[in-house]
Known about the structure:
- 59% of the residues lie in helices and 0% in strands.
- The chain is mostly helical.
- Helix 1 (11-18) crosses helix 3.
Amino acid sequence: MVHYTWKPPPLREVFETAFGLPKSFGALDLDQQLGTMKDKANTYFGAPDTSQFKDGNKQDALIRLFMLRSQIQEIFSSTSKGNVALSLLRNTTLKQ
Length: 96
């Protein structure tokens, strides 16, 4: 019998993914990272501070946004331009 365990991602990764920040975001100055995170939190959730995530509804919204963006990233990373073109060509019918 195989047991699968799910390891939740680090909290920082949850916020970075949910806010649509690039992988290179961690290379920025810490003050700049903090400012960006606060701006994004304010934009998406209406307040810049992390205390808002004590509210279960805000936690759920953050998780949904994280899951959505994670799935979108997964789709785009697994689909090459060639595969997209080939898929489009396969679904095209030629008129004779």
